[in-house]
Design goal:
Nuclear Transport Factor 2, Chain: A
Length: about 90
């Protein structure tokens, strides 16, 4: 789900059926919680891709990340992403 004008333009470019091989990725944070040196981030994602057979595929889903601050740098401890189920 595009969140800005530039994101919309990138998605429009992907949507044309001209055999484009451009990949599009959008990440939209919904919540960031920091407790001391630990952070939990939840976000939605949308990915657009063209297969090696020229087929376009769009996938949407959500992710959760856990990070820990080590000195002055945030490092990933765990993450999980899941595609949304396809609606019939």
């Amino acid at each position: 789900m595009p969140r800005s004008r530039s994101a919309v333009k990138r998605w429009e470019k992907f949507s044309f059926e001209d055999g484009s091989t451009n990949n599009v990725a959008e990440y939209s944070p919904t919540a960031i919680v920091v407790h001391g040196d630990t952070a939990v981030v939840h976000y939605y994602y949308s990915n657009g891709m063209t297969s090696n057979k020229g087929e376009q595929k769009t996938v949407h889903g959500r992710c959760s990340d856990v990070l820990v601050k080590d000195n002055k740098a945030w490092k990933f401890v765990a993450w999980h992403c899941a595609d949304e189920s396809k609606k019939h």
